[in-house]
Amino acid sequence: MVKLPCPKIGPYWWYKLLVLSMNIEEFRSYCLSKKGVTESFPFDENTLVFKVLNKMFGATSLNEDEFRVNLKCDPEKAIELREQYDDIIPGYHMSKKHWNTVYFERGLEDAFLIELIEHSYDLVVNGLSKKLRSELNSM
Fold first, then answer.
1. Dihedral sign, CA of 43, 93, 132, 114?
2. Domains of the chain from N-terminus onward
3. pTM assigned to the model
């Protein structure tokens, strides 16, 4: 049996990663496939936000020339990622300590982008109250 680098994503998404690049539609679809996730435009009509149980884990602009996403990140890991990848910078219009802006179409591997999305989602879920985590698990 082949061990996938990111076991949280199912075979369907690994197939998608082999066939398609992670564009905004694929990003949206992947986020909405996560348990408890909703999308909204809380800031303006151009900023698409993804939340898990009303806590934001991702945001992107719909009117930028280049597709980029703000993702939550552990502060130490955020620094490491920025040092290692030119396509990851401090979060645009966000807390620079806890958020990174990731350019999705500059060559980062799709499996790595999925890992960054998972990390952001997991950080938010782990920060939820015990009651909310229990609600999420029962969905």
1. positive
2. 11-137 (3.90.1150.30)
3. 0.84
